[in-house]
Structures are given as structure tokens and as C-alpha cells.
């Protein structure tokens, strides 16, 4: 269940579907509670590997498909303010660092979020994820400590558990399973295989107590273990 009262949430991820796996249940709970959510999605995932077999998309049409999927996912979650920030997929890591920080700073200045959700720097696996997480941390770091919003990171590198331990925030999301399913299904061009796996899991009577549809976990950013001293 939700552990904090929030006035405004800002979610920042680089790819359509990043929001679906790790955060859509929690976000749906906040949306149900009437908390305004802004999702800044940095790219349209236009370099997505999956064009289908037989192909359902070309390099030209894939961004349009993924844009529609992103809109459907946001709707399933209950996100009303979806921003597509127009960066190019697979190139976020090559964007100018200061430009990235400025992008985050202007979102924070405009929205005054009480909570920001993104990836956890150094535990986010993909270079675009890392670049996104680092820009968010840098922007928040520039704020006076007393003014900083809560900052939750999603971490899924192999060494996460060994180094960060268990997430300090765990949400039971079973009451919004439907929302999460619909968010993941919305990204069918990328997640079709996963959804098949999930229905197979259910058919097989898998009774694993914890999975994508029962819990979501986050790490409060550890300023005392900042990934860099300053920027
Ligand atoms: Zn991603």
C-alpha cells in the first residue's frame, strides 16, 4: 500500500514501456488516490528491436506505433499528463549532460513534485536508463537538501540485491493488477512475449507468491552514497 502522501509525482524514463514493468501498479494506486502524475518519456523507443515476424512495422512506422502504445499505457494507469520529450532512442547517453540536467530542472521547477520516480544510477543496466537516472539525480542534487522531493529509483542490475539490499519501499499492488496488466499489454509490440509467458505461468498454476503483479519495490536515493560528488 502507499506509504507516503504525495501532492504531485514526476516520472522520468527514456523508453515507452519502462513505466509498465516496475512502476505501473504503484502509479495506478496514486492515480486512484487522485494524485496528479506527469510522465516525461524521453524517447519514442524508435530503435526497438522488435519489428515483428512477419514485420508489423518499419523504422518509419515504429515510432507512431510506440507512441500510440505509450498513450494507451498511460491511460490504463491513469496518467493524465504524458510528455514526450523528443530525444532519440539509443542516443540518450550521448546527449549533452548539462542539457539533460536542464530538461529535468525545468520539469521540476514547473511541477514542484513531491516525489520523482526514475531508475537508480549504476543499477539500471541500459545506457539510456543510466543517462536518464543520472540527469535526474544531478538536477535534484542542485536543489537545497530541504527542498528536494523524494526520489525513488528502480534498480534491476544483477548486483542490486548484493549491493543495495532489499528495496526500502515495497508496494503491494494486487488491488491494481488489472491496471498493470493493461499497461503492459498496451506495449504489445515489445511485451507480447512477456504477456504470453505470464499467461503460461498462470495456466501452469505457478503459485510464486511474489511477482510483477503482486509487489513493486523502489530504493530511496541514498544521498550519503551519491554516485558522484558533484556536477
Ligand atoms: Zn528502457
Automatic annotation (TrEMBL):
Q: Name one Pfam family in it.
A: PIG-L
Gene3D superfamilies, sorted: LmbE-like
Q: Residue ranges under compositional bias (Basic and acidic residues)? A: 197-207
Using the UniProt annotation, give all residue ranges assigned to the region (Disordered). 182-207
Q: Name one GO molecular function term.
A: hydrolase activity, acting on carbon-nitrogen (but not peptide) bonds, in linear amides
- Can you say what this protein is called? Bacillithiol biosynthesis deacetylase BshB2
Q: Organism source for this protein?
A: Kurthia sibirica
Taxonomic lineage = Bacteria, Bacillati, Bacillota, Bacilli, Bacillales
